[in-house]
Structures are given as C-alpha cells and as structure tokens.
Specification:
The complex is a heterodimer of chains A (389) and B (147). With 389 residues, chain A is α/β, with parallel strands linked by helices. Helix content of chain A is 34%, strand content 18%. The longest helix of chain B is centred in the first third of the chain and has 10 residues. Chain B is mainly beta and 147 residues long. Helix content of chain B is 7%, strand content 44%. Classes of the chains: A alpha/beta (389), B mainly beta (147).
Chain lengths: 389, 147
C-alpha cells in the first residue's frame, strides 16, 4: 500500500510460544499489554483503533482480547482472518489507519491457541468445500509436493532440507520465547517421524499457541509518547493468491514474488539490502523456496545460499534470527504479529543471547498461507522496517 | 414403504463425490470409460477443470463438456503419514498434468513410495475417503501406467 504519511512502531509484545493451558484471548492480552506498556501507554483510552488476527478460535476474538483491558467501548475493534497471514494482516490494517490519517495510534494483535481447540495427530487442511480438501489435501502435503519437485529438479536431499531446522534451532538457542531451541543434528531431523514425505516431524513447525502485538503511530505521537527508538514502517504489502488450474512451477511462489515486488517498489529497499528476515518457514522447504522467491538469491541458488552461510549470522542476511516458525511453532493468527515484534526487538538491540551483530537496521517480515485450491496460498502479508535513530 | 426406502439407502455404499460435475462414467454415454469433465467456454473456448461458476477469462456462463485425457504426467507426489482428521494413513496424493494443459490434484491408487515425479499415470476410480457412517466415498484417482 502507498503510505500517505510516515508510520512508526512504538512498542511490541510477544508471549512465549508453545503449548499453553490458557486460551487465545489471555495470550493476546499479554502481548498487547507488553506492546502498550512498551509504548509508554498506561491508560485504556489512548489507542484509537485495534485489529486482531486469529485463524480458528471463534467469533469476536478481538473484543474478547480487549474487554478485560477496559478498552471495549472506547475504540473500533476489527477482527481479521486470513489463516496463517492473519496476524500480519492485523498489523497491516493498523498501519493503514495511521498512514491514511484516520488515527494517530493503533494496535495490531495476532493470537491463537491451537492446542485447546485442535484434534491431536491431525494436520491442517483446506475446507471440506474445497476440491483438494475432499481429496485429502493437508498443508504439510502441499509443501511436500513442492519439496519433492525441488529435490527432483535440483538434486537436493532430505539432509539439505534438514539443515534449515538445524540453523533455525541454533538461532533460537537462547531465545526464551521459542518453543524448540538449541542443538539438533541433521540425523535427528531426518530420522524423526515421517509426516509427509520428505518432510519429517522436525522439518515441520509445531502446532503452537502464542501471540504478538504491535503498536503503530504517527511522528507526532512518537514525540508525545517519548519513544526512544521508533522503527519506521518503510513498506507494508498484502497480496491475494492468483488462481491457476494449469501446469506451473511450484518451486517458485507467485504470491510471495508479487507481494515482495510490491514491497520493494514501495519501500525503495531491495532484498539484498535487508539485514534480517523473519519469513514463513512453516516447513524446511518453505524457507529454501522463499530465499529465491524473495530475491535474497537467484532462482535455483537457494541451497547454495544456505550452504554458504548466507542465511545465518555473519552472512548476507540473517534469516529467522528468532528461530523462525521451526523454533517458535506456528499459531496461525499469532505468527505474523510476533515476527514483527521479534524484528523490532532485534533492531533495538534487546535480544540478549540471540542478538544479531551488528545490530540490524533493516528488517523484513513475510507470512503467507491459507489452503485454497488453485493458489499457492490464499494470502501473503509483508512488512519492511527501518530503524530511525 | 418408508422402511423399504431406508433399507435401500443403507445398501448403497458407492458414493461418488462431486459427481456429476467432475466425473463422468460410461453410463453417461459421452465416452465408454470414466473421464474427468473439462468445461470449454462457449464464448472464448478456454478449457477449465474444475467447472468454474463463470469463465475466469471472459465471464461466459455457458460451457461445453469435454472428456479430458485419461492419461497424464505426475508432476509431483507425496506420501501422507499424518493426514486430515478422520482419514486413514498412509495415503498418497499428487498433481497430474494432462495434455490439455490442465493440472489435477488427486489421490493416487498405489503403495506409498511407489510413485515418482514425471511418472505416467492414468485415471481410475477408487475410494478417496469415508463418510461419517464409515461408507467409502468414491471418486477419481490416478494409478501408474505399467505397460
């Protein structure tokens, strides 16, 4: 979207990710309160609009989050659902309000609890009204199709894919918000339980619970609130997935390419300038494909990019510095907002034990998803963030 | 009468899903074998599967039904070990590219591990899942061409 005026991130919040005995609204509230307090807000009547992303937990999720903060009745609360893109889209919507001058300060929250709501031992699937859903499609399997084709065409191996989990878990080793962290070997990843060939359990993001929140505001409000380290939103883009029913290359990702192109155009920042990226690493193969789709490297160069150490500390761009979804797990509604929160903390140098060095100045986030036949995904949301101090 | 009707319903185990919009059988007398139904727009001649509500190219609303090729190339395939709720694992699905420049997502009829990219496959009919009563739901699948 074309930002009609500058928008800044004032404060962010994220919960610990993993299995929680409390529901999405408690998690959303925890993240929101962190973001609000981090924005030097100590009253319920400052925020002018709120967007809450949630995939599957029910109705009026946003109002349920904010009721107990005394905020209901003071502002419009709008609920946002686009499967795995929900949380990112909620933040996007908050940015749009401020950019258009409709508000001076807004909040985007993403929250989800899967463990209290989902049958264990099953995989996410498209709706039963979907032609692929009826045939037994599951998201793990749709990415496995991409992995098999990628391996067939490039000669990549399961061990190569496993290297992504190993890298991301290492990034998360000292991140208290991550669910799975620390040492894991390629052998352990490859020998874990088969989910959808060639994707083993440790190559799939955990079905987690968690939340993230982001307060965005105008330049005036940055001053009023006394924000030390405002992060400027250099670009925000949302795309819907093009429909195809004809042969095409699924080792590429048209929706990500389109969304990234728009983001680079609008922000004036290219992919090779980005210091850190949190992308949609729901599966090992996804991170590999997105290196290429995002233009971090050329088409067909993803594996080399990984092997050469370009996606980790000291490389061209640290991909998944928080540990990504492969370490956090992926609560459908929560991830998009939590990615932005994690990037802002990196840019502010607040990631003790997992801080990227030198402190990153340009960060990018990417969440894409939603099983819809004929599309790679239904929705993709991306943000470009720049430190402004 | 109603008893008899009920009994007849219970005996009927062949539930063909999405029939007749997707899958034609020899009984249709269009082709002497089961076939997937392509839809050719009468206005712009674009050929689609599955049937669109209206032509994505020109918004034409009338279509000719065209039997699609029963053989195609398996673009990619995977064996599913953790599946949809209610589905028995393992099962196999993939994308089949037909000569009409159409890609079909379908389950494969065959053992896990027995398919690979670019295999030649052909249309068959088989059980794709079970309904809540445990009865098989039959629809199109693809199997390996051995000859």
């Amino acid at each position: 979207m074309k930002l009609m005026r500058d928008v800044y991130i004032a404060g962010v919040g994220e919960t610990r990710f993993g299995k929680h005995g409390v529901d999405y609204d408690v998690l959303g509230r925890e993240a929101a309160l962190q973001a609000l307090r981090g924005s030097n807000i100590d009253r319920p009547d400052v925020i002018q609009s709120a967007y809450v992303g949630n995939g599957m937990n029910g109705i009026v999720t946003g109002q349920t989050v904010f009721k107990d903060l005394g905020m209901c009745g003071r502002l419009p609360i709008i609920n946002v659902e686009s499967a795995c893109s929900s949380g990112g889209m909620a933040v996007y919507s908050a940015i749009r309000d401020v950019a258009a001058g409709m508000t001076d300060i807004s909040i985007g929250v993403g929250c989800e609890n899967h463990s209290l709501h989902m049958q264990t031992g099953t995989a996410f699937s498209p709706a039963m009204s979907d032609i692929e859903g009826v045939q037994g499609a599951v998201m793990t399997g749709k990415y496995a199709l991409r992995a098999n084709r990628y391996m067939y065409e490039t000669g990549a191996t399961i061990e190569d894919l496993a290297g992504i989990t190993v890298k991301n878990r290492r990034h998360a080793a000292n991140n208290p918000h991550a669910w799975f962290r620390g040492q894991i070997t390629v052998e352990e990843v490859v020998n874990s339980r088969m989910v959808a060939y060639p994707l083993t359990l440790q190559q799939c993001c955990g079905i987690a619970d968690g939340a993230g929140a982001v307060v965005v505001c105008s330049a005036d409000m940055v001053k009023k609130l006394g924000i030390d380290k405002p992060v400027r939103v250099a670009g925000a883009a949302v795309q819907s997935g093009p429909y195809h029913n004809r042969p095409r290359d699924i080792t590429a990702d048209d929706i990500t390419e389109a969304c990234a192109h728009q983001l680079y155009e609008e922000s004036g920042i290219g992919p090779r300038e980005v210091d850190i990226v949190e992308l949609h690493d729901a599966f090992t193969i996804s991170e590999l494909l997105y290196y290429e789709s995002l233009g971090l490297c050329g088409k067909g160069e993803g594996l080399k990019f990984l092997r050469d150490g370009n996606a980790t500390h000291g490389g061209q761009c640290v991909v998944s510095p928080r540990g990504g979804m492969l370490s956090y797990g992926h609560p459908m509604g929560g991830s998009g907002a939590a990615q932005i929160a994690a990037c802002v903390k990196q840019m502010r140098g607040q990631c003790d034990g997992y801080q990227v060095d030198p402190i990153p100045r340009i960060a990018m986030t990417h969440v894409t998803g939603g099983g819809l036949s004929g599309t790679e995904h239904a929705a993709c949301t991306m943000h470009m963030l720049v430190s402004q101090w | 009468m109603s008893d008899k009707k009920g009994q007849k319903k219970e005996e009927k185990v062949d539930i063909t899903f999405f029939h007749p919009d997707l899958l034609g059988t020899a009984a249709d007398e269009v082709a002497p074998y089961p076939y997937l139904k392509g839809y050719r727009c009468k206005r712009c001649e674009q050929l689609d599967f599955p049937k669109p509500s209206l032509c994505h190219n020109c918004w034409g609303e009338e279509f000719d039904v065209v039997p699609l090729s029963t053989r195609g190339r398996l673009y990619s395939v995977t064996d599913i070990y953790i599946g949809q709720a209610g589905m028995q694992t393992p099962y196999v699905f993939g994308y089949v590219d037909l000569p009409e420049n159409l890609r079909i997502f379908a389950q494969m009829d065959g053992e896990p591990g027995s398919f690979k990219c670019d295999d030649e496959v052909e249309l068959t009919i088989g059980t794709i899942r079970h309904n809540r009563q445990g009865l098989p739901i039959k629809s199109y699948k693809f199997r390996k061409v051995w000859e």
